[in-house]
Write a sequence for this structure.
């Protein structure tokens, strides 16, 4: 049969359900955690805890986005921590060293993040070398350059507005950082769902050859994705600056795990071509919840890493299993 | 092919040339460079890095990545430390168990990878976190200090400039070269990396080989851990934390293909020599230590760039 | 050894590859397995060799049920195969590749002396000139194929399955192979031979089984009882019905794409031709002649090192594929649909609209689903594309419908020149005719097509003129009379005589052939 | 009291081991509901702040914190203050402006200065020295570098600094850096001043391995390996700190502050340091062959002196 309106609705609903099935599952897990944690430790939903949670969540989400946009192209960016700290130190220097106003400094720092990401993308596309290697090397290169230039000195006399912003609370517990993260999320949804560029990124990630032969400038698209990733890494760094009220060289060095956790839990494929923005946010929420939950439950903060690793394993395996079941079912229908 | 062309076609020729230039340059400019103690120090810092690089090289050989080498190394380190200090196990018992733990960790990585079909990158990222978690959970980050003196002494023993610590890595290197070049599983391992589909059609037990590669990788991570503990004289939970970049840098500078099927024991070893040499040169030149980070990144980029150029020249790309 | 296949069924997402196939190979026979592209021949072989598990049915070796979980099991049971795809380890030597899974050892170590001695023995049966110590990646395609055959022979198995072993080797080597096969047959081995070349099949095999759409269309008929016509109609299910293009005279149309003395980084030399508006220009050649690479050069994907390309009369230097599409309105449909043509995981909508996203995007860069649908849906109807909805993942469509998606995206893009590479590989006969009609129709709308095909009937049905390529050079250009017999003879004579022969035929070279 | 107090180091580090005993003793001696020693799993700011935040959620009412990151900790401390929870900097100070109630620690500047002086004396007043320093992010490191330079500056060129080697406060890094240093330059160096725990231990070990008594070493803290090196002549001395006293007195004062009964005085005899205007010295002394047997008693005495006079000197209590 040819396309008929009668057939379209169920099929689209099917695709929608498959995607939202994952999201609902994730949301359900998060919800269960919250219910359990709150009933065991009422302090878990105190304004204080919600506020600190919303702040860490915001940063984890943006870190996750930074990796997600490169995963979309089927690549990786191991340098996001390094890019983040470069942006952080640049912002610190511009505000404290040159006395520039925060907005100008932040814009410049974001531009630096984007530029470093662009450099990654450019090197990857030009050399044809795997993004894993290029960004492994550039991570070390950027961090080294930052340390050489900054001598690893913290900038701690930033304009008070910066720290004040980090301390703002809406409705008692919502950090403006979270609102920024959600806004970035909304922008990314628009990008990947509704713009030519976003679609081209996904096409290039799913099958670069086919995309290229269909007229997608794959090289340019990959570079743009890396540039965006760099800018997002910079944004995550700057959010930390607002939170800490200072720009310090130690930022970013432990982003690797969370940067992959959030998108992978959220259903973004490592092989490229598919992303889930909402999934990444829920993935980050799950991680933040578990981390805070384990601490609050006094499971022993030394065991935290173990739990995070096991949860990641469980989540990807579950996703795998779900995919298989879905495939089998669709075969059975035929 | 002329000799020159053959040299260019050879992966390790460029590294060897760089090493020769480095040695001559350092010897000429710094009298301390060739002193017995300095040579000893360099050779000693070569040991752990070499074995760790080999651990990564084995997973690269089958076209996979192992992000958990450092975490597993840390776990093995505190395991042997704990066995010797807390449980009072003799060295001859603790070390084999440590090796077994490493191999087991690798086995888990391998089994999870082939059973789930999930990218090894994600699997080992997750197991790395789990291994580190076990390590921290057991030790609460507190090192084991009271190790048998014979073991600690081995870490610092030397015959003039030659550190005893170098013996195990040299043996490992020779065995590994033999394994990859001359044994059936070794050849199969490279075959699976070179063309998994073809290897499978030929009746090679592909999953088994991938698991084997991961297991050996874990085993070598354990060897690295044991060496590190001997070298430090204490079992630190932090052992392995900064192995990641080194583990990739050396094999990749040594020309290993990330897609698998092509690795070189000799070139990887030379790459480690080069890295150690650069580090030492920077100490001699009293360069700001931050340059280490920077130069390592630059070195990897230069190496892959060069390799790429060479491949294009040789018409392989 | 006797191998029996009973009622085998196998489906892939969206395709039933085998549907109740039964089949028997006896000791001491050469059994030909025939069928169109996609009929299920290779799938059957992969099931017999344990690479795929059948959905139903069973396998018997000498009457005993066998259950293979992997190629290892099949090899252990005495079954060896040359698969259709190349399966060698590039950085290993020829010798090691041949003995890969059972390298001889001494004291636990691989005994390379013996590796090369043993490999030599089997290689010598077909081509003594290949050195067992060469790395496989340094061999030519034909040499690799010979290594594959030697590898299969070296197992000295009771059952030998050969999936298109002669596709890329020369007649000389094929003769050597046939001699070996005859000897093995005399030794009582059971041999399955897959080929599209009817002459070979009739020359060497004892019986023939024909598959059509995954079902048995002729079961183990003695070759003597099968005429060419009977085999062909078993393969395609009826007398060949072909698309009717009708006579057309395009000689005074304007030239849209011209090449003059073009050479490429891959070794094409002195390529010259003219494609006219609304024309189908065929590019024929044997596999490996360099046609695909030429197409890639024309769309800016391979570097052109000399000569001139003109589009609509103006000289162009196309640097990239996007430039070819956007600036010059040239599209290319790859011969490898899955790897290069489509994004299998993405829906029909994206696969078609990919070429127009930039065009339909608003000033803010936004692409509306509605806008996409308005472009995609009419095309789906026009091409009679069978899909439950345009949101269906392309990977789940049948091969023919996938091919329609690749064509649809170029119709959406509004290209003026379309290079179509092997448009009907793996596509069933009915859809094939539909696709032919579609190609003809788009040229009536003014699109010019450069058609690459190894399928002679297809070429003769569709092309207005035919270029013949051999070894990266054009060796002939023929006005198509659309009469099969004389046309195929002329084409084959160009191919066999090569450039020199062609030069003798047409003193002024290919360009003069048409004039 | 029913206060719950947490003592939180910057991360796992042997220096803080005595805090555990100090916490237990303070809980018993002062009748506090709970005094717990809680260690972030790694030496990272975010792990420390997450730990603090989760302890707030669990109802802890006061914190003694070693600011592993002197600046980074301040935003968290500010939030604690906002929630009515007092915090004090122990062992090292947070950088002003800070909401830490006070800082009780080693006067690291003075300690490094005195240590370097002792080293220079052991070297006979001339030669070249190398400074082995701790983590760069450690608030104390920069102060120590300045102090070493000051002491060297006072020799008018007789002594010079070859290098500050930083980030040596982790075993692997220390082992690699110190051995590479000795390998490359041992003949040009006359003295080593170490201002962090682990490099002191590693340097003492390496000099013993080398059998080198020519190079003089002054370390910090009282790890047994360092003390043995002093006894055997491989080290000239080490600067004692008072981690136990910091934890013990810290818990005592936090209990008073958390009850709401006391506040810190604005005009107390605080010491002004480059980091903070609210510093109290927990005790600084050089351990050498001469006092190696008795220094522990000296530290105990200092601890009880600080504790007994603290309330009057530094607090306003209802
Ligand atoms: N792994 C696979 N996944 C999905 N579909 C497949 C797969 N392998 C084969 N098919 C499909 O199964 C059908 C039979 O394919 P098969 O390769 O067996 O054909 P064939 O007779 O060997 O054709 P050819 O002459 O082109 O080699 C085709 O429609 C093909 O697209
Ligand atoms: N420079 C080269 N050196 C060696 N082999 C090459 C080179 N370029 C292409 N080839 C190989 O030669 C063959 C011819 O390429 P091409 O695909 O263009 O031929 P074709 O006429 O289109 O035949 P096919 O039907 O296989 O597509 C391919 O197998 C390709 O891998
Ligand atoms: O001696 C220092 C202490 O002062 C503290 O900084 C922790 O690290 C140790 O090395
Ligand atoms: Mg086939
Ligand atoms: Mg082709």
């Amino acid at each position: 049969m040819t396309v008929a309106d009668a057939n379209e609705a169920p099929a689209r609903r099917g695709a929608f359900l498959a995607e939202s099935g994952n999201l609902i599952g994730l949301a359900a897990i998060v919800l269960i955690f919250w219910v359990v944690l709150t009933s065991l430790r009422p302090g878990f939903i105190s304004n204080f805890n919600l506020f600190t949670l919303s702040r860490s969540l915001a940063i984890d989400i943006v870190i996750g986005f930074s990796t997600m946009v490169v995963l979309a192209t089927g690549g990786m960016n191991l340098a996001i921590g390094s890019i983040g700290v470069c942006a952080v130190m640049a912002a610190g220097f511009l505000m404290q060293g040159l006395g520039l106003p925060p907005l100008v400094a932040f814009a410049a720092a974001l531009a630096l993040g984007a530029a470093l990401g662009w450099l990654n993308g450019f090197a990857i596309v030009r050399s044809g070398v795997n993004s894993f290697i290029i960004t492994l090397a550039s991570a070390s290169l950027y961090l080294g350059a930052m340390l050489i230039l900054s001598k690893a000195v913290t900038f701690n006399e930033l304009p008070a507005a910066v720290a004040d912003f980090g301390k703002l609370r809406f409705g008692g517990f919502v950090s403006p950082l979270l609102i920024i993260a959600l806004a970035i999320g909304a922008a990314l949804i628009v990008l990947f769902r509704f713009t030519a560029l976003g679609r081209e990124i996904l096409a290039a990630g799913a099958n670069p050859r086919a995309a290229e032969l269909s007229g997608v400038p794959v090289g340019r698209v990959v570079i743009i994705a890396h540039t965006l990733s760099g800018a997002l890494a910079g944004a995550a760094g700057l959010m930390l600056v607002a939170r800490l009220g200072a720009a310090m060289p130690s930022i970013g060095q432990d982003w690797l795990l969370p940067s992959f956790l959030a998108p992978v839990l959220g259903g973004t494929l490592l092989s490229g071509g598919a992303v889930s923005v909402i999934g990444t946010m829920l993935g980050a929420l799950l991680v933040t919840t578990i981390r805070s939950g384990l601490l609050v439950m006094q499971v022993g903060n030394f065991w935290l890493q173990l739990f995070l690793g096991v949860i990641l394993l469980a989540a990807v395996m579950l996703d795998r299993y779900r995919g298989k079941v879905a495939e089998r079912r669709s075969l059975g229908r035929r | 092919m002329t000799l020159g062309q053959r040299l260019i076609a050879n992966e390790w020729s460029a590294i060897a040339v760089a090493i020769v230039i480095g040695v001559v340059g350092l010897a000429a400019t710094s009298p301390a460079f060739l002193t017995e103690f300095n040579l000893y120090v360099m050779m000693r810092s070569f040991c752990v890095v070499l074995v760790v690089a080999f651990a990564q090289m084995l997973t690269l050989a089958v076209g996979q990545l192992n992000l958990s080498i450092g975490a597993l190394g840390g776990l093995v380190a505190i395991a042997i430390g704990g066995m010797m200090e807390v449980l009072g196990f003799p060295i001859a018992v603790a070390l084999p168990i440590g090796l077994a733990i490493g191999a087991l960790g690798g086995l888990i990585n391998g089994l999870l990878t082939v059973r789930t079909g999930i990218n090894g990158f994600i699997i080992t990222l997750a197991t790395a976190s789990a291994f580190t978690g076990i390590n921290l959970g057991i030790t609460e980050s507190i090192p084991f200090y009271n190790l048998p003196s014979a073991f600690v002494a081995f870490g610092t023993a030397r015959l003039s400039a030659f550190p005893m610590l170098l013996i195990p890595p040299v043996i490992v290197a020779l065995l590994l070269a033999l394994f990859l070049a001359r044994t059936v599983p070794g050849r199969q391992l490279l075959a699976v990396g070179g063309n998994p589909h073809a290897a499978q059609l030929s009746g090679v037990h592909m999953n088994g080989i991938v698991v084997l590669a991961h297991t050996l990788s874990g085993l070598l991570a354990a060897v690295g851990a044991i060496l590190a503990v001997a070298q430090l004289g204490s079992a630190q939970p932090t052992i392995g934390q900064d192995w990641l970049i080194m583990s990739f840098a050396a094999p990749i500078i040594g020309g290993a293909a990330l897609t698998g099927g092509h690795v070189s024991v000799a070139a990887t070893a030379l790459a480690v020599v080069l890295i150690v040499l650069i580090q030492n040169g920077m100490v001699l030149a009293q360069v700001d230590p931050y340059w280490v980070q920077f130069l390592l990144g630059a070195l990897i980029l230069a190496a892959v760039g060069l390799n790429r150029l060479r491949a294009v020249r040789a018409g392989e790309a | 050894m006797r191998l029996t296949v009973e009622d085998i069924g196998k489906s892939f997402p969206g395709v039933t590859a085998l549907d109740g196939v039964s089949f028997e190979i006896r000791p001491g026979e050469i059994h030909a397995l025939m069928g169109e592209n996609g009929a299920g021949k290779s799938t059957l072989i992969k099931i017999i060799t344990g690479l795929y598990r059948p959905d139903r049915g069973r396998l018997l070796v000498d009457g005993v049920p066998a259950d293979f979980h992997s190629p290892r099991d099949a090899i252990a049971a005495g079954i060896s195969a040359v698969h259709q795809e190349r399966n060698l380890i590039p950085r290993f030597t020829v010798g090691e590749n041949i003995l890969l899974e059972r390298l001889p050892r001494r004291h636990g170590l691989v005994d390379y002396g013996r590796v090369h001695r043993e490999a030599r023995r089997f290689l010598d049966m077909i081509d003594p000139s290949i050195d067992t110590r060469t790395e496989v990646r340094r061999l030519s395609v034909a040499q690799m194929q010979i290594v594959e055959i030697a590898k299969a022979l070296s197992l000295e198995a009771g059952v030998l399955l050969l999936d298109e072993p002669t596709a890329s080797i020369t007649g000389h080597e094929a003769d050597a192979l046939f001699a070996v096969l005859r000897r093995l047959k005399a030794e009582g081995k059971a041999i399955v031979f897959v080929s599209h070349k009817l002459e070979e099949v009739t020359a060497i095999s004892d019986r023939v089984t024909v598959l059509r759409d995954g079902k048995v269309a002729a079961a183990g008929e003695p070759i003597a009882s099968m005429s060419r016509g009977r085999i062909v109609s078993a393969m395609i299910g009826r007398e060949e019905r072909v698309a009717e293009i009708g006579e057309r005279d395009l000689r005074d149309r304007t030239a849209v794409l011209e090449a003059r003395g073009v050479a490429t980084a891959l070794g094409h030399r002195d390529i010259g031709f003219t494609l006219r508006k609304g024309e189908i220009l065929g590019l024929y050649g044997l596999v490996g002649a360099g046609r695909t690479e030429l197409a890639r050069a024309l769309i800016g994907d391979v570097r052109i090192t000399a000569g001139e390309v003109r589009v609509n009369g103006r000289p162009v230097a196309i640097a990239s594929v996007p430039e070819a599409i956007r600036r010059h309105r040239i599209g290319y449909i790859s011969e490898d649909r899955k790897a290069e043509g489509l994004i299998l995981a993405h829906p029909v909508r994206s696969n078609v609209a990919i070429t127009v996203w930039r065009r339909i995007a608003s000033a803010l860069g936004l692409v509306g689903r509605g806008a996409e649908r308005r472009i995609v849906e009419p095309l789906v109807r026009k091409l009679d594309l069978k899909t439950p909805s345009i949101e269906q993942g392309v990977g789940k469509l049948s091969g023919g419908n996938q091919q329609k998606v690749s064509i649809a995206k170029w119709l959406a893009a509004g290209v003026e020149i379309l290079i179509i590479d092997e448009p009907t590989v793996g596509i069933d006969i009915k859809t094939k005719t539909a696709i032919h009609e579609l190609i003809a129709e788009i040229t009536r709308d003014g699109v010019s097509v450069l058609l690459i095909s190894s399928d002679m009937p297809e070429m003769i049905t569709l092309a207005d003129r035919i270029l013949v390529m051999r070894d990266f050079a054009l060796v002939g250009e023929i006005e198509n009379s659309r009469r099969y017999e004389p046309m195929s003879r002329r084409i084959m004579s160009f191919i066999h005589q090569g450039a020199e022969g062609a030069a003798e035929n047409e003193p002024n070279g290919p360009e003069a052939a048409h004039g | 009291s029913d206060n719950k107090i947490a003592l939180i180091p910057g991360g796992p580090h042997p220096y803080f081991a005595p805090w555990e005993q100090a916490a237990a003793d303070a809980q018993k001696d002062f009748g506090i509901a709970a005094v717990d020693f809680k260690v972030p799993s790694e030496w990272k700011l975010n792990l420390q702040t997450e730990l603090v935040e989760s302890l707030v959620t669990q109802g802890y009412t006061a914190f003694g914190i070693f600011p592993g990151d002197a600046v980074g900790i301040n935003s968290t401390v500010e939030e604690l203050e906002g929630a009515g929870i007092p915090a004090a900097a122990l062992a090292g100070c947070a950088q002003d402006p800070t909401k830490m109630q006070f800082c009780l620690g080693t006067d690291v500047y003075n300690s490094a200065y005195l240590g370097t002086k002792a080293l220079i004396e052991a070297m006979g007043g001339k030669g070249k020295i190398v400074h082995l320093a701790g983590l760069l992010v450690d608030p104390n490191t920069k102060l120590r570098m300045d102090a070493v330079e000051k002491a060297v500056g006072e020799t008018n060129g007789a002594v010079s600094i070859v290098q500050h080697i930083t980030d040596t406060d982790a075993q692997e890094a220390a082992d690699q850096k110190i051995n590479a240093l000795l390998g490359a330059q041992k003949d040009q160096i006359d003295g080593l001043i170490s201002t962090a725990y682990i490099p002191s231990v590693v340097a003492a070990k390496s000099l013993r391995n080398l059998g080198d008594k020519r190079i003089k070493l002054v370390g910090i803290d009282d790890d047994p390996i360092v003390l043995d090196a002093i006894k055997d002549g491989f080290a000239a001395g080490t600067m004692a700190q008072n981690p136990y006293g910091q934890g013990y007195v810290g818990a005592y004062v936090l209990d008073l502050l958390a009850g709401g009964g006391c506040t810190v005085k604005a005009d107390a005899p605080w010491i002004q340091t480059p980091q903070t205007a609210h510093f109290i010295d927990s005790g600084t002394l050089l351990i050498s062959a001469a006092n190696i047997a008795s220094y522990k008693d000296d530290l105990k005495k200092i601890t009880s002196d600080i504790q007994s006079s603290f309330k009057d000197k530094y607090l306003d209590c209802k």
Remarks:
- Residues 45-258 of chain A form one domain.
- Residues 80 and 245 of chain A are 21 Å apart (CA to CA).
- The two ends of chain A are 14 Å apart (CA to CA).
